Amino acid sequence: MIYDAAVIGAGPAGATFARIAAKNGMKLLLIDGSGEYGKPCGGLLAPDAQKMLACFDISLPHDILTSPQIFSVKTIDLGTRSVRYYRRMYLSMDRKRFDGFLVSIIPESVDILKGRCSAVSRTRRGFVVTVRQNGKDMHFRCRNIIGADGASSFVRHRFFPDRKIMKYTAIQQWFRSDSRTDPFYSCIFDPETSESCSWTINKDEYFIYGGCFTPEHCRIMFEKQKKRFSEFSGIEMNDPVRTEACLACRPEKYSDFVTGRRGVYLIGEAAGFISPSSFEGISGAMMSAKALAEAFENNRGSAVAAAYSKAVFPLKTKYMVKTAKRLFMYVPVLRHTVMASGITAIKTEKK
Ligand SMILES: Cc1cc2nc3c(=O)[nH]c(=O)nc-3n(C[C@H](O)[C@H](O)[C@H](O)COP(=O)(O)OP(=O)(O)OC[C@H]3O[C@@H](n4cnc5c(N)ncnc54)[C@H](O)[C@@H]3O)c2cc1C
To answer: Which of 70, 173, 258, 269 most suits a substitution to test ligand 1, by most atoms within 8 Å of the C-beta?
Structure first.
């Protein structure tokens, strides 16, 4: 049999595409090779992602949410030792369960396969996809390839090798914590160890410390920064129960976004859809997936690529506007000016 499309990756992008496109009548193979714990993630559902769920008429089961829920971010600059609070309207959730939920609402007509896609070759009538499962290779035929395989996208590398995008190495550690450690959620800047940002978040019985670093010496810088944060906050971080790492894309220009053509399409972070300022990527994953599913519904052949590219232009522009916001977050002197001014900051009660 020939599938209309093989979707590689069942994160928010792949699962959303599969759900909508299958309802529109496409016959799909969804391939995912995620490990036991899923993707390292802060597990924060931003207002744009909540809006997408609202547009899909999807409500979340309560067991996806974690405790505590947060209403603000404590922003800490370890360079200047300044602190400000800003209001945030995120939902804090268990990312693994969230991804599992999105997969659980995919129509049964979609064939879901656990395994890693290791090769894709173009044939005269479409593509042959190779999937490695339990040490064995399986081959499937399809008319289109949907690369929903995240920041280290195999599909992007295979079909668009010259379209490289800047990447950070994200490292996260989980610590068991019996007490609710303040801050519940913080964003940390430390120019001495990273040009990007880090975060702490309390999730159920865990305290998480994570951050994005330039790949060179990332682990050394992570440890150094953790120590500096401990000294600043008094929070001890010993004996992590889990250490996880992955890549995170940072789009800098329009050409960093690759939507695809000639039967190969990219959605979500594989396409570059992630906020360059906050690394929020779930909303862009769902938006791009919806746009591509609709492009398939209303178009044929090369018109699909054109329609999809047009539909996600506002999303690209939103991210490019955020590169300007990024300057005020990541250039130390500008950040210091913004934090010192108190603009948009909130006052909190003394503890
Ligand atoms: C540390 C960290 C924290 C983050 N925190 C947040 C946050 O709090 N909120 C937020 O909105 N965003 C956050 N992001 C960004 C967000 O996680 C991503 O942008 C989002 O998951 C992208 O969704 P996606 O579906 O495109 O890709 P992914 O969620 O990365 O899913 C890709 C899937 O493809 C699978 N895959 C990859 N290669 C293959 C292959 N060859 N064969 C088969 N399967 C494959 C993977 O196993 C994975 O399941 C964070 C990112 C990082 C790195």
So the answer is: 269
Which residues have CB under 8 Å from 88's CB, separation 6+? 70, 71, 72, 73, 185
30 and 65 in a common domain:
yes
Question: Ligand 1 centre from 296 Cα, in Å?
Answer: 23
How far is the C-alpha of 67 from the C-alpha of 183, rounded, in Å?
Answer: 13
261 and 187 within one domain: no
Nearest Cα residue to atom 27 of ligand 1: 150
Is residue 351 situated within a structural domain? no
Q: What is the pLDDT of residues 27-58, one digit of tens each?
A: 999 999 976 545 789 999 999 999 999 999 99
Number of folded domains that form the chain = 2
User: SS3 of 19, please?
Assistant: helix
* pTM summary value: 0.97
Task: Give the span between the Cα atoms of 128 and 114, in whole angstroms.
Answer: 17
Cα of 348 from ligand 1 centre, angstroms: 34
